[in-house]
Every structure is written in structure tokens, then in C-alpha cells.
Specification:
Structural class: mainly alpha
Number of helices: 11
Number of strands: 0
Length: 269
């Protein structure tokens, strides 16, 4: 287990976020928005998946971490609900996509074993922690709109902070390697599918041509090869039989990033 998990409230006015907030780049912004749109429903799924087994966890330290995890993820979901409202105000039609996303993932959640939902959550939390690590170690946050920088840096810091909670619960409930890997496959396929679909939907609404999109993707990939870094790199780590999220020693990154910019994380809620 890692250290204390502290829920924090973020107070920012997201209505000021410009349409192309990621370095003024249409494609980079669409890719970023493609995953941001998924967060509210995704975070709530993570909470439900862990909460299903809460009564079976008798370790006080882990229960305290689970409580912090619930608090952080609930606040992330609400903040990204507000950001989805910003996308609507900017003229994007996102509700049909989000309805399909929630209908499909809800159908799956109701029909697979609860342990598999937990295993998928543990794997997805690993992916989000790697995304967060990259954001703090690459020049990602320094090139985006300041308001979005506040939102995403807060979110990333807390993703690293609670990266091991779902995994530790999974190990207490069922440490089966086969279950862990099945959850990894489900999480990777689901995240990649809806991330790509959401990004493509936004790019169509921005009337981006295929050739222009491809050129921009190549340039983005040179700056941040997130497919290789997050999915391929994350999978290579996760399939090790002795893997644990704590092996990624990235707990210091958020504090160093904030301190280097004269910033601080919000106060504890």
C-alpha cells in the first residue's frame, strides 16, 4: 500500500477554457478531450467496482485508502461533468456518443462477474497513473491553457496517489493472475476503443480532413508517443507476475512539478 490518499476540492472556472486549449492544436485537443469525456462515467464505474467488495476488506489501513479513493474519484467525476458542459457550450454534440458509451459499458458491467469489473478497474488505474506520470515528466502541461492545466494537474496528482488501491483490493479478493490479465485486456480494449471513437467524433465536428489529421498525429507522436508509453509500456509492466503499482516510483513527481512552478495542490477537502 502507498501513503495517505487525500481528497481535494478544485475551484476553477472551466467556462474560460478556449476551444483548442491544447497548444492551439485541433487534433491534440480532440485527443485530450476524447479521454476527458470518458472520465465521469469511468470514475463512477471504478468506485462501484471497488465498493462492491468493501465489506470483505477488514484491513483498517486499506479501508482508509479506499475511502480516500472514493473521495478523489467522486470529485474527478464531478469536475469532468462540468468540463463536458463546456464542450456542449462550445457547440460540440457529445450526448449521443456519451449515451452509447454508458449504455455499452453499463451492459457489460451488469453481465460480467464483479471480480472482472474490479480487475478491469485495477488495470485502468494503472493506465491512468502512467498517463499522469507522462504529463508530469514531459512538457505536456506547460503547453496547455492555464485553466485546463489546473484541472488536469490536480487530477493527475491524485491518480498517482491512489494508483494501487484497486489493485490491492483485487489482490485481497482474488489474486489470480488469469483474472488480473483478463481485466487488463478488457480495460485496454475498452479504453482504446472509446478514446479513439470519442476523438474521431470531435474531429469530424471540427471538419478536420484525414490528411491533416494524420500529419498532426505524426507530429504529436514524436513529442509524446503516448500509445507506446501508456498502452504498450503499461501492458509490459502489468503482465509481470510480480507486478505491483508501487514499483513505479512516481509518487514524488506531482510535488516536484507544482513546486517548480510556484504552485500548490488544493487543500484537503
Amino acid at each position: 500500500m502507498t501513503g495517505p490518499i487525500v481528497p481535494r476540492d478544485l475551484d476553477v472556472d472551466l467556462s474560460r477554457v478556449p476551444r483548442y486549449w491544447n497548444n492551439g492544436n485541433v487534433v491534440a485537443t480532440a485527443i485530450s478531450n476524447g479521454i476527458n469525456m470518458l472520465f465521469p462515467a469511468g470514475e463512477r464505474f471504478f468506485v462501484r467496482s471497488v465498493k462492491h467488495f468493501l465489506d470483505q476488506i477488514d484491513d483498517p489501513a486499506l479501508r482508509a485508502q479506499i475511502k480516500g479513493f472514493f473521495g478523489q474519484e467522486g470529485r474527478h467525476a464531478r469536475a469532468h461533468d462540468q468540463y463536458n458542459d463546456v464542450l456542449r457550450a462550445q457547440g460540440y454534440e457529445i450526448d449521443r456518443f456519451l449515451a452509447s458509451y454508458q449504455r455499452i459499458t453499463g451492459w457489460l458491467e451488469a453481465r460480467v462477474p464483479a471480480k472482472l469489473n474490479l480487475a478491469a478497474t485495477a488495470a485502468a488505474e494503472h493506465f491512468t497513473a502512467i498517463l499522469a506520470e507522462g504529463a508530469f515528466t514531459l512538457p505536456v502541461f506547460d503547453e496547455i491553457d492555464p485553466t485546463m492545466r489546473q484541472l488536469l494537474a490536480w487530477h493527475a496528482a491524485e491518480e498517482i496517489e491512489h494508483k494501487a488501491v484497486a489493485y490491492d483490493v483485487l489482490q485481497r479478493i482474488d489474486p489470480s493472475y488469469a483474472l488480473r490479465i483478463t481485466g487488463l485486456v478488457w480495460a485496454a480494449v475498452t479504453l482504446a476503443t472509446f478514446w479513439v471513437a470519442g476523438s474521431a467524433m470531435l474531429l469530424r465536428q471540427d471538419r478536420m480532413r484525414l490528411g491533416d489529421t494524420a500529419r498532426s498525429l505524426r507530429a504529436i507522436g514524436k513529442r509524446d508517443p503516448f500509445i507506446r508509453r501508456v498502452f504498450l509500456g503499461g501492458i509490459r509492466q502489468y503482465i509481470r507476475r510480480d507486478f505491483h503499482p508501487s514499483q513505479n516510483a512516481n509518487g514524488h513527481l506531482a510535488a516536484e512539478w507544482f513546486a517548480a512552478r510556484g504552485m500548490t495542490l488544493p487543500e484537503a477537502a
